[in-house]
């Protein structure tokens, strides 16, 4: 895997750090609007080439994968162009702004016989996989509670009258897309799509959600997902069944440790030996690529598409509108 990176923010740093643990993968190029922004990353991680024009990166013969770590609203355009130029794609969460955009990407990847992945860490973590394999120990599930709250340093800028990308509807920002999405991926990867979706949000005057409560209703149980960028909170996941409960410490994004309570028994589980959670998703993607396992890739895409459908339903319920909602993408061309 010879990867070209789009973006130079903190998530790109974490990605490059994780990449060092994957022997068969390397970053060969990086794209930034300004050469000076990319130079520190290139020097730190030994990246050979810096591009300042997207077309140069897409035509780079030493790049066969594109990793996208740009603002949310740009994910679709960058991913589509990469696929059209014959590059496999790893795109940061949220995959796209709308289901329509994701549908186009999936169709294009299938047509081009290319791999396409959403970089959502938690569903690939060893601790999460243990939960998935042992969920039956809890008996019939009744309640799922998730809280992932992290006060954003950009929130002060918003309060001061600024409009940072992460709180800008034009850039598909907000707490639901940026932070509550981890709760949503965890719940839906375990339990599938809900029967009913409701989202009650604290909204800024600009129309974006700074925090909110997402409720997913299933036939036999209810999941409550809290996500906040305007407060700190106690981050956790509780999966409650008639025979006991799993307590995931520190929230859905990292699944750092699981406390298992069944009857009088209390145990703990933690098999994650590498602190950087991006390593585990990259290891999965590399294995799928190396084994040409398109079926597994498509399974993950089906899951991501279901999550995007739920995100859209939640936004509709809360009256959150993105610029991408009104864009006319030519679906018939794909």
Automatic annotation (TrEMBL):
It comes from Paenibacillus bovis. Residues 1-116 form the Gfo/Idh/MocA-like oxidoreductase N-terminal domain. Residues 136-245 form the GFO/IDH/MocA-like oxidoreductase domain. This is Oxidoreductase. It comes from the Bacteria. The lineage of its organism: Bacteria, Bacillati, Bacillota, Bacilli, Bacillales. GO terms for molecular function: nucleotide binding. Signal peptide: none annotated.
């Amino acid at each position: 895997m010879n990867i070209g990176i789009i973006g130079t923010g903190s998530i790109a740093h974490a990605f490059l750090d994780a990449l060092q643990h994957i022997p068969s993968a390397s970053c060969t190029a990086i794209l930034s609007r300004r050469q000076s922004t990319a130079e520190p990353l290139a020097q730190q991680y030994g990246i050979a080439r810096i591009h300042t024009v997207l077309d140069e990166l897409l035509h780079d013969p030493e790049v066969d994968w594109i990793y996208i770590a740009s603002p949310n609203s740009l994910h679709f355009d960058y991913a589509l162009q990469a696929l059209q130029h014959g590059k496999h794609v790893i795109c940061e969460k949220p995959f796209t702004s709308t289901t329509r955009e994701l549908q186009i990407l999936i169709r294009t990847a299938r047509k081009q016989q290319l791999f396409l992945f959403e970089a959502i860490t938690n569903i690939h973590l060893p601790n999460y996989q243990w939960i998935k394999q042992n969920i039956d120990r809890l008996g019939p599930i009744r309640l799922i509670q998730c809280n992932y709250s992290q006060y954003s340093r950009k929130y002060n800028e918003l309060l001061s009258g600024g409009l940072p990308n992460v709180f800008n509807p034009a850039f598909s920002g907000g707490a639901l897309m940026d932070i509550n999405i981890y709760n949503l991926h965890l719940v839906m990867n375990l339990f599938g799509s809900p029967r009913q979706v409701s989202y009650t949000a604290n909204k800024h005057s600009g129309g974006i959600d700074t925090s909110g409560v997402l409720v997913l209703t299933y036939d036999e149980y209810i999941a409550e997902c809290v996500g906040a960028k305007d407060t700190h909170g106690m981050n956790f996941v509780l999966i409650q069944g008639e025979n006991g409960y799993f307590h995931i410490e520190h929230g859905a994004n990292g699944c750092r440790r699981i406390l298992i309570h069944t009857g009088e028994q209390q145990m703990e589980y933690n098999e994650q030996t590498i602190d950087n959670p991006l390593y585990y998703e990259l290891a999965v993607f590399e294995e799928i690529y190396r084994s040409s396992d398109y079926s597994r890739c498509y399974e993950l895409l089906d899951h991501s598409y279901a999550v995007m459908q739920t995100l859209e339903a939640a936004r509709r319920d809360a009256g959150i509108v993105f610029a991408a909602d009104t864009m006319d993408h030519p679906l018939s061309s794909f």
